[in-house]
Amino acid sequence: MTMTDVPGAVRARWLAVTSVAVGTFTIVTSEMLPVSLLTSIAADLGVSAGTAGLTMSAPGLVAAVSAPLLAVTTRRVDRRMILIGLMALLAVANLAGALAPNHPVMLAARVLTGVSIGGFWAFAAGLGPRLVPERSVGRATSIILAGVSVASVLGVPAATFVSSFAGWRSAFAAAGVLALALLALLATTLPPLRPPAEPGTPRTPDKRSSWLSGPLKLVLVLTTLTISGHFAAYTYVRPFMEQVSHAGAALVGTALLVYGAAGVVGNFTAGAQAAKSPWRTLVVQVGLMTVAMAALVLVDLPPLVALVVWGLGYGGVGVTLQLWIMRAGGGELGTALFVGAFNVSIALGAFVGGRITDGVSVSAVMWAGAGLTLVSAAVAGIWGRSRTTGS
């Protein structure tokens, strides 16, 4: 009946969904690049590990601002053109990072990366209803969001693998080439996507004010605690493994690859559970993360074991928080605010972790991350139990 019900059109729209999912994978992979390359970047650009961590903080802060700002200022612009433009910007940023002769130039490239990340993620997350029939919106949205989650756990080991052959700059160059390929793919597969006349997933003013005053605030608080705790510790996991666990390059690469595989498992196992009870799912996830961070410092176990537990926990966090927002009725602006909180938390965590690493020790940063995730588990648990008791 509708255009999306015609078999050929349906296949074309699912190809568009896949392209957007690969796009979200590419932007988040680009954001995560410095994590496994931090030691090499710091040595090559002549700065400390903590200062090199600003290459994580800068794009996070910029993305946090650009997500809601672009959502508000581009209401009348075709979403297809915005996504293509942001992917072109990402290609330029990654290639500039690969060629950066010093730290200030690298930071400038990472600022451009942040603009692309914030805008692309915020618009892509809500494209499901625009691309597929209504009955398939849930599946399309989960595929698009899986690009974010899988990138969060696979981007780091992928960068480690590429850089092991030709240095850290090769990882940025590879990400730039991937963005150029995605630019062509998006231009080919995306249909015109005029902005919706009415953004409102919340259907009434009462529902909107209830959403803004309750669930949105809670999700933003939990996002800030969980993601800043994760990145305070995870941004410096390579220096920790080298200095404290005395791991060589091969073990570091293997550990991060195993972490990524565990994270993919965590991502896809969390979806069904989070759809039923996001707060319970989040409590389990951040509990696993807390245990893993503490175990790295306290327990004389191979770091592989702790990183598997960490990956299982963190792998599903993004999907759980996003599903929580969707379940509560957040529209495009709600998603943009979530993306902003997520990215400012990456920046905050990486910055605080860098100060602790330089000022105290690389082991202390694990305790900082564990403390923040423990508080997140407590907040989610208290809220969930009070809501269950009150119902």
- By DSSP, the count of extended strands is 0
Gross morphology is: globular
Oligomer: single chain
What Rg do the Cα atoms give?
A: 20 Å
| CATH class category name | Mainly Alpha
Average pLDDT figure: 82
Q: What's the helical proportion of residues? A: over 70%
Membrane topology: Multi-pass membrane protein
Domain Major facilitator superfamily (MFS) profile: 16-388
Keywords: Cell membrane, Membrane, Transmembrane, Transmembrane helix
InterPro entries: MFS, MFS_dom, MFS_Efflux_Transporters, MFS_trans_sf
Q: What is the compact description of this entry?
A:
Helix content is 83%, strand content 0%.
Descriptive report:
It is found in: Cell membrane. The protein contains 17 helices and no strands. It has 391 residues and is mainly α. The protein has one domain: Up-down Bundle (Growth Hormone, Chain: A), CATH 1.20.1250. Helix 7 runs antiparallel to helix 12 and helix 10 runs antiparallel to helix 17. About 4% of the residues have low confidence.
Distinctive features:
391 residues, mainly alpha, Growth Hormone, Chain: A, 17 helices, globular
List the helices and strands and how they pair.
Layout: H1 7-45, H2 49-52, H3 54-73, H4 79-99, H5 103-124, H6 128-131, H7 137-166, H8 168-189, H9 205-213, H10 215-234, H11 237-243, H12 249-276, H13 278-298, H14 303-314, H15 317-327, H16 332-359, H17 364-390
Helix pairs in contact: 1-3, 1-5, 1-7, 1-8, 3-5, 3-16, 4-5, 4-8, 5-16, 7-8, 7-12, 7-15, 10-15, 10-16, 10-17, 12-13, 12-14, 12-15, 13-14, 13-15, 13-17, 16-17
